[in-house]
Amino acid sequence: MQIVRTIRIILCDRIKGLETPSAPFAAWADTDVTGFMMTPGQVKQTEKFFAEHPHLSRVLTIDTYYDVTTLDGGGSHELITTVEEAVRMGVDAVKMLFPWNISRSERATMCARVGKIVTACDAWDIPLVLEPVIMGAPRTDDVVIQEEKVARIAYDLGAHIIKIAFPGEERTARLVDELRVPLVIAGGPLAGDVDDTVDAIGQTLRAGARGIIVGRNIWQRERSEGERVLKEIGTLTRGVSFTS
After folding, report:
1. What is the CATH number of the domain that holds 82?
2. Is 244 contained in some domain?
3. Structural domain of residue 42, as residue ranges?
4. Among 3, 6, 71, 118, which is disulfide-ready with 237 (CB 3.0 to 4.6 Å)?
5. Is residue 104, in this structure, part of any structural domain at all?
6. Do 204 and 233 form a contact (C-beta atoms < 8 A)?
7. Full-model pTM
8. Would residue 157 count as lying in a domain?
Protein backbone atom coordinates (compact mmCIF):
# COMPACT_ATOMS: atom_id res chain seq x y z
CA MET A 1 0.00 0.00 0.00
CA GLN A 2 1.42 3.36 -1.03
CA ILE A 3 1.87 5.97 1.64
CA VAL A 4 0.15 9.20 0.70
CA ARG A 5 2.21 12.36 0.91
CA THR A 6 -0.39 15.11 0.69
CA ILE A 7 0.07 18.87 0.91
CA ARG A 8 -2.68 20.51 2.89
CA ILE A 9 -3.85 23.65 1.12
CA ILE A 10 -7.07 24.78 2.78
CA LEU A 11 -8.14 28.40 2.79
CA CYS A 12 -10.88 30.23 4.66
CA ASP A 13 -8.82 33.42 4.78
CA ARG A 14 -5.91 35.08 3.04
CA ILE A 15 -2.80 33.26 4.25
CA LYS A 16 0.83 34.10 3.64
CA GLY A 17 2.21 31.87 0.91
CA LEU A 18 -1.25 31.04 -0.45
CA GLU A 19 -2.51 34.42 -1.56
CA THR A 20 -3.62 32.89 -4.88
CA PRO A 21 -5.45 29.71 -3.83
CA SER A 22 -5.07 27.87 -7.15
CA ALA A 23 -1.37 28.64 -7.64
CA PRO A 24 0.39 26.05 -5.42
CA PHE A 25 -0.78 22.96 -7.29
CA ALA A 26 1.34 23.52 -10.37
CA ALA A 27 4.17 24.82 -8.19
CA TRP A 28 4.43 21.58 -6.18
CA ALA A 29 2.95 18.94 -8.51
CA ASP A 30 6.28 17.78 -9.90
CA THR A 31 7.81 17.16 -6.47
CA ASP A 32 7.30 14.18 -4.17
CA VAL A 33 3.69 15.16 -3.43
CA THR A 34 1.09 12.50 -4.21
CA GLY A 35 -1.99 14.62 -3.57
CA PHE A 36 -3.58 17.76 -2.20
CA MET A 37 -6.24 18.58 0.37
CA MET A 38 -8.52 21.18 -1.18
CA THR A 39 -11.62 23.38 -0.88
CA PRO A 40 -14.58 23.17 -3.28
CA GLY A 41 -13.47 26.42 -4.93
CA GLN A 42 -9.99 25.07 -5.56
CA VAL A 43 -11.34 21.82 -7.00
CA LYS A 44 -13.63 23.65 -9.41
CA GLN A 45 -10.93 26.07 -10.55
CA THR A 46 -8.30 23.39 -11.20
CA GLU A 47 -10.30 20.68 -12.97
CA LYS A 48 -8.24 20.90 -16.16
CA PHE A 49 -4.93 20.82 -14.30
CA PHE A 50 -5.80 17.66 -12.36
CA ALA A 51 -7.25 16.00 -15.46
CA GLU A 52 -3.77 16.44 -16.95
CA HIS A 53 -2.12 15.11 -13.74
CA PRO A 54 -4.19 12.02 -12.88
CA HIS A 55 -1.48 10.62 -10.59
CA LEU A 56 -2.33 13.31 -8.01
CA SER A 57 -5.08 12.55 -5.50
CA ARG A 58 -7.55 15.15 -4.23
CA VAL A 59 -9.06 15.20 -0.74
CA LEU A 60 -12.02 17.57 -0.51
CA THR A 61 -12.76 19.41 2.72
CA ILE A 62 -16.55 19.37 3.12
CA ASP A 63 -16.90 21.36 6.35
CA THR A 64 -15.66 24.46 8.11
CA TYR A 65 -15.18 25.61 11.70
CA TYR A 66 -15.32 29.31 12.52
CA ASP A 67 -14.26 31.65 15.34
CA VAL A 68 -11.91 29.39 17.25
CA THR A 69 -9.96 31.56 19.66
CA THR A 70 -9.98 29.72 22.98
CA LEU A 71 -9.48 26.20 24.28
CA ASP A 72 -13.08 25.96 25.47
CA GLY A 73 -14.39 26.04 21.92
CA GLY A 74 -17.11 28.49 21.00
CA GLY A 75 -16.81 27.98 17.27
CA SER A 76 -19.47 26.87 14.83
CA HIS A 77 -19.14 23.71 12.76
CA GLU A 78 -21.12 23.28 9.54
CA LEU A 79 -20.96 21.40 6.25
CA ILE A 80 -20.15 23.43 3.14
CA THR A 81 -20.87 20.75 0.53
CA THR A 82 -22.09 17.15 0.26
CA VAL A 83 -20.65 13.72 -0.37
CA GLU A 84 -22.73 13.51 -3.54
CA GLU A 85 -21.16 16.73 -4.84
CA ALA A 86 -17.69 15.40 -3.96
CA VAL A 87 -18.38 12.30 -6.04
CA ARG A 88 -19.61 14.46 -8.92
CA MET A 89 -16.37 16.47 -8.70
CA GLY A 90 -14.40 13.23 -8.99
CA VAL A 91 -12.27 13.66 -5.87
CA ASP A 92 -10.67 10.69 -4.13
CA ALA A 93 -11.79 11.29 -0.53
CA VAL A 94 -13.64 13.76 1.68
CA LYS A 95 -12.40 15.20 4.94
CA MET A 96 -14.08 16.58 8.06
CA LEU A 97 -12.91 18.10 11.29
CA PHE A 98 -14.02 16.35 14.48
CA PRO A 99 -13.57 19.05 17.19
CA TRP A 100 -14.26 17.88 20.73
CA ASN A 101 -13.81 20.90 23.03
CA ILE A 102 -17.49 21.75 22.60
CA SER A 103 -20.60 21.25 24.72
CA ARG A 104 -22.24 17.85 25.22
CA SER A 105 -25.19 18.78 23.03
CA GLU A 106 -22.81 19.97 20.30
CA ARG A 107 -20.89 16.70 20.57
CA ALA A 108 -24.11 14.76 20.05
CA THR A 109 -24.93 16.88 17.01
CA MET A 110 -21.40 16.45 15.69
CA CYS A 111 -21.53 12.65 16.06
CA ALA A 112 -24.91 12.53 14.30
CA ARG A 113 -23.51 14.65 11.45
CA VAL A 114 -20.45 12.41 11.09
CA GLY A 115 -22.67 9.32 11.12
CA LYS A 116 -24.72 10.66 8.22
CA ILE A 117 -21.57 11.48 6.26
CA VAL A 118 -20.15 8.00 6.89
CA THR A 119 -23.40 6.47 5.60
CA ALA A 120 -23.27 8.63 2.47
CA CYS A 121 -19.59 7.78 1.93
CA ASP A 122 -20.33 4.07 2.23
CA ALA A 123 -23.17 4.42 -0.28
CA TRP A 124 -20.93 6.18 -2.80
CA ASP A 125 -17.79 4.15 -1.99
CA ILE A 126 -15.66 7.17 -1.13
CA PRO A 127 -13.55 7.33 2.06
CA LEU A 128 -14.04 9.84 4.87
CA VAL A 129 -10.92 11.27 6.49
CA LEU A 130 -11.99 12.36 9.98
CA GLU A 131 -9.76 14.65 12.05
CA PRO A 132 -10.15 14.48 15.86
CA VAL A 133 -8.91 17.76 17.27
CA ILE A 134 -9.00 19.98 20.33
CA MET A 135 -9.43 23.32 18.57
CA GLY A 136 -7.23 26.25 19.54
CA ALA A 137 -5.21 24.18 22.00
CA PRO A 138 -1.46 24.12 22.59
CA ARG A 139 0.11 20.68 22.23
CA THR A 140 0.19 19.81 25.92
CA ASP A 141 0.24 16.24 27.20
CA ASP A 142 -3.40 16.58 28.30
CA VAL A 143 -4.48 17.67 24.83
CA VAL A 144 -2.57 14.82 23.18
CA ILE A 145 -4.27 12.33 25.53
CA GLN A 146 -7.68 13.85 24.78
CA GLU A 147 -7.16 13.66 21.02
CA GLU A 148 -6.11 10.05 21.33
CA LYS A 149 -9.41 9.28 23.08
CA VAL A 150 -11.40 11.19 20.47
CA ALA A 151 -9.66 9.16 17.76
CA ARG A 152 -11.37 6.09 19.26
CA ILE A 153 -14.73 7.86 18.98
CA ALA A 154 -13.93 8.65 15.33
CA TYR A 155 -13.32 4.93 14.80
CA ASP A 156 -16.59 4.01 16.51
CA LEU A 157 -18.47 6.37 14.18
CA GLY A 158 -17.06 4.54 11.17
CA ALA A 159 -14.31 6.85 9.89
CA HIS A 160 -12.43 5.20 7.05
CA ILE A 161 -9.21 7.14 7.70
CA ILE A 162 -8.28 9.02 10.87
CA LYS A 163 -6.12 12.12 10.68
CA ILE A 164 -4.48 13.23 13.91
CA ALA A 165 -1.77 15.60 15.02
CA PHE A 166 1.39 13.63 15.81
CA PRO A 167 0.99 12.30 19.38
CA GLY A 168 4.45 10.75 19.62
CA GLU A 169 5.79 7.48 18.29
CA GLU A 170 4.50 5.29 21.12
CA ARG A 171 0.94 6.65 21.04
CA THR A 172 0.85 6.51 17.24
CA ALA A 173 1.89 2.85 17.33
CA ARG A 174 -0.81 2.08 19.91
CA LEU A 175 -3.52 3.79 17.84
CA VAL A 176 -2.42 1.91 14.72
CA ASP A 177 -2.44 -1.42 16.58
CA GLU A 178 -5.74 -0.91 18.38
CA LEU A 179 -7.92 0.85 15.81
CA ARG A 180 -6.65 -0.98 12.73
CA VAL A 181 -7.82 1.68 10.29
CA PRO A 182 -5.41 3.82 8.25
CA LEU A 183 -3.95 6.59 10.37
CA VAL A 184 -2.54 9.72 8.74
CA ILE A 185 -0.57 12.35 10.58
CA ALA A 186 -1.08 16.11 10.26
CA GLY A 187 1.97 18.34 10.01
CA GLY A 188 0.47 21.23 11.97
CA PRO A 189 1.67 24.85 11.91
CA LEU A 190 5.15 25.81 10.81
CA ALA A 191 7.46 24.93 13.70
CA GLY A 192 11.07 23.92 14.19
CA ASP A 193 13.70 23.43 11.55
CA VAL A 194 13.71 20.94 8.68
CA ASP A 195 15.44 18.24 10.71
CA ASP A 196 12.80 18.46 13.46
CA THR A 197 9.98 18.07 10.93
CA VAL A 198 11.66 15.15 9.19
CA ASP A 199 12.42 13.44 12.51
CA ALA A 200 8.76 13.66 13.57
CA ILE A 201 7.66 12.21 10.23
CA GLY A 202 10.19 9.39 10.58
CA GLN A 203 8.77 8.51 13.99
CA THR A 204 5.28 8.54 12.51
CA LEU A 205 6.20 6.08 9.77
CA ARG A 206 8.08 3.77 12.13
CA ALA A 207 4.91 3.67 14.24
CA GLY A 208 2.83 2.47 11.28
CA ALA A 209 1.02 5.58 10.03
CA ARG A 210 -0.22 5.21 6.44
CA GLY A 211 0.02 8.81 5.35
CA ILE A 212 1.49 12.25 5.93
CA ILE A 213 -0.54 15.44 5.40
CA VAL A 214 1.85 18.36 5.68
CA GLY A 215 1.04 21.92 4.67
CA ARG A 216 2.56 24.93 6.38
CA ASN A 217 5.72 23.02 7.28
CA ILE A 218 6.37 22.92 3.53
CA TRP A 219 4.84 25.89 1.72
CA GLN A 220 5.49 28.48 4.45
CA ARG A 221 9.21 27.71 4.42
CA GLU A 222 11.69 29.11 1.96
CA ARG A 223 11.27 27.17 -1.29
CA SER A 224 14.59 25.35 -0.92
CA GLU A 225 13.72 24.26 2.62
CA GLY A 226 10.25 23.13 1.56
CA GLU A 227 11.73 21.07 -1.25
CA ARG A 228 14.17 19.50 1.18
CA VAL A 229 11.32 18.50 3.52
CA LEU A 230 9.46 16.88 0.62
CA LYS A 231 12.56 15.07 -0.60
CA GLU A 232 13.23 13.69 2.88
CA ILE A 233 9.58 12.62 3.25
CA GLY A 234 9.74 10.85 -0.11
CA THR A 235 12.88 8.99 0.90
CA LEU A 236 11.31 7.93 4.20
CA THR A 237 8.02 6.75 2.69
CA ARG A 238 9.64 4.77 -0.11
CA GLY A 239 11.50 2.80 2.54
CA VAL A 240 8.29 1.61 4.24
CA SER A 241 6.24 -1.43 3.28
CA PHE A 242 3.10 -2.98 4.77
CA THR A 243 2.03 -6.59 4.94
CA SER A 244 -1.71 -5.82 5.20
Report:
1. 3.20.20.70
2. no
3. 4-239
4. 3
5. yes
6. no
7. 0.85
8. yes
Per-residue pLDDT of the chain (244 residues; tens, 9 = 90+): 343 444 444 445 666 666 777 777 888 788 778 889 899 999 999 999 999 999 899 999 999 876 554 555 556 788 999 999 999 999 999 999 999 988 899 899 999 999 999 999 999 999 999 999 998 788 899 999 999 999 999 999 999 999 998 888 899 999 999 999 999 988 755 566 778 778 888 888 888 888 888 777 776 777 787 778 788 877 877 766 655 5
What residue type is 239 in one-letter code? G
Query: Amino acid identity of 101?
Result: N
Separation CA 152–CA 205 (nearest Å): 20
**16 falls within a domain:** yes
Nearest residue to 178 via CA among 205, 147, 155: 155
